[in-house]
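Notes on consecutive records. When two proteins share a document, each keeps its own sequence and its own token line. Never mix them. Below: protein one.
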Amino acid sequence: MQVRDIPALTPPQTHVPPELVHDVDIFDLPGAREDVHAAWKRLQQEKPPIFWTPRNGGLWMITRAKDIEAVQKDTDHFSMKGMLVPNNPRPFPAPPVDFEPPEHGPWRMLISPAFSPKVIAEVEEKVRQVVVELIDKMKPQGECEFVSEFTKVLPIVVFLTMMQLPPEDREQLMPHADAIVRSPRPQSIHEARLALKAYIQKAVDDRKLRPRDDLITKIIHGKINGEPIPESHAVGMCTLLLSGGLDTVKNLLGFIALFLARHPGHVKQLRENPDLIPHAIEELIRRHGVSNTARLVTQDIEFLGVQLKSGDQIQGVTALFGLDEDTVPDPMTVDFGRPAPIPHAAFGNGPHRCPGAILARRELKVWLEEWLPRIPEFHVKPGTVPRHDAGMVNNVSELWLSWQ
């Protein structure tokens, strides 16, 4: 058991109906280590569409696609300032998530050009180079621990290269990024945020002396409504980008690799029809959602027949969006023939939709294009058991693969 910095159970306030109190800990979800998505699916089936848990400081949870989407799009009542569970206010400003429309738009415009289709097309060459190098290194071994040898390398090296930060720094950065989205201890989250901020501050100081044609330089020299942005906001924005860029794609890679290792028929489909890969990626992302961001209620509101109070935290289990029968028929089955568009909320909805979604898809596409011709048949290494974990971000923490 991990030592918590918050009480194990938080008594519900008077506006919480007793019948909607359910003891659910997202960091200790029954069955999550064996199959995290099946564990979330059981929660969706067994609990009401909205309920309150006394764990992790006490918060509301919602599990149905239409309700998750409603919260993500209603920026008048639900703020991203409460995005982490347990709720732990960031000790520094971090645009654009700290702002809601209309203030949000100009801040987002500062980073959007870095993730445009044109820029991502240019980044693809680096993605492909890293993918090929990693695969060619591990192929002769006949096996690999996919998380440490691939998922913790490819997206992190690519993102650090985009920000013109040293790729070798990933070793010191990854523990902090992991702690922010996976620790149930507020103090650990706080310390990890400050560590990433200190790292970015050094990069910002360097860019002030030696400007480059990179995202960090563009941000620190950016303007909002014609006015230079405060350095504190520039540092916070870069820190937020770094934290996000180190995690989501890594976990999608792990879940998709695990699925394909267990489903050779789906691998055969992709090998025989590579043009299917972009569509298949959408289906695989739908089935294996990773992020479960929360929101802070900013004003009293009735939602799903329940009174929510300003200051309440509410978590939409975003991974369940694509596993909802009301949205997707037979949602637990991966069907590469499922008609487009394939509904999922892996990258969010509304103004806070992840700006790196195009990059994430491109990395997954390049990986499959290069992996399948080189390692056409692979499986979970006999004698090993893949390990999953639930939390703010679902992840595969260990995955041994082997091939002939």
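Protein two starts on the next line and is unrelated to protein one.
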Amino acid sequence: MPDSAVILLSGGIDSTTTLAVAVDRGFEVRALTVDYGQRHRIELEAARRTAAAMGVKEHITTALDLRAFGGSSLTADIAVPKNRGEADIGRGIPITYVPARNTILLALALSLAEARGDRQIFIGANVVDYSGYPDCRPEFIAAFAKLANLATKAGVEGCEFTVEAPLIALTKAQIIQLGTRLGVDYSLTHSCYDPTPEGLACGRCDSCLLRRRGFREAGIPDPAVYRPFED
């Protein structure tokens, strides 16, 4: 029997590529998607598409409405920043940061892993092309892994958890090239923080800009559908 693992799957480029990496390594994958009240809830459908296309053994979508807390343009009535330059995207912590989101999502993944007897957790965190999020850093991943083994019955009894972020040191272009080699269909993914009601990507938020640059630098056409705009 192959080992099984839990992966946090948002339906974006990073989590979908991470899923492909886990499958390529021979894991049977259990995917967890969280509806946290995000502005771009269309990504939930993208997660369903990618999970189905890549044959995960179980895909769970659970709801935890972080709009009750707000504090982010993804969970409150705050404008999503647009047209920021590369230097601005890499500087500071933007308003699209959702307070403690990855801590919360990894805690849910840990709960699922312990309940199912899995010991490996994957997350598509990335420190190179990320938008200043503190919960995408290697230090955070290492700290959470330590917490996982201190705070669970399984960990205390010696069944240690591993938390892995295989894309942590890759650029967006490298991630796209890796996923392409592994057969990822990026037309199934969604990246935009502020899509139109019809689901078209805005092309101007940080996530869209990083995606567009990543495909351009990878030399691979971006299959995302953007609303009309002028370059």
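For the record: The chain has one domain: 4-218.
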